[in-house]
Specification:
Elements lengths: L9 H10 L4 H14 L4 E2 L1 H11 L6 H11 L7 E2 H13 L2 H12 L9 H15 L15
Antiparallel strand pairs: 1-2
């Protein structure tokens, strides 16, 4: 798939149809919207964090956004291209339970060693608490990620 093209080539659409559950028309619409938001054809971690911070304005979404970003960025090049983006959106919105579970596991398994340690679990839960910020105040009796 050629980067930054205004139109997807038929072979690129075929590839995307093979890795997602989106139709030809849906892929074209997603691509148009993706390029409008990201004319370079790439989504950076800073742009990703900005999106999450807009969704959670009362907290700090940066750590959680980085963890999700790392899961989207399957080739590890520190950017998300349209293929990576659509693949992740497809799994999260139309994927089977086992696909969603594998995707979530990969987000929690930060060092990609095939195991989720207590520390990794604590890191992700803590990042969710920070992201939620003032949305849900906990009393002193409530459990925290450390508990």
């Amino acid at each position: 798939m050629g980067k930054y093209q205004s139109k997807l080539k038929p072979d690129a659409i075929d590839d995307l149809r093979s890795i997602t559950q989106f139709s030809h028309a849906e892929i074209k619409n997603w691509y148009k919207d993706f390029l409008e938001a990201h004319p370079s054809g790439l989504l950076t971690v800073k742009q990703f964090e900005t999106m999450y911070n807009k969704l959670f304005p009362h907290g700090d979404a940066s750590v959680f956004a980085e963890q999700v970003f790392r899961t989207f960025d399957t080739n590890g090049d520190d950017s998300i291209d349209f293929r990576e983006f659509l693949f992740a959106v497809s799994i999260s919105s139309k994927g089977k339970s086992d696909e969603k579970l594998e995707w979530a596991f990969n987000m929690y398994d930060m060092d990609r060693d095939g195991f989720i340690t207590r520390g990794e679990m604590l890191d992700i839960i803590t990042s969710i608490y920070k992201m939620m910020g003032g949305i849900r105040k906990t009393s002193e009796d409530d459990s925290t990620p450390e508990k």
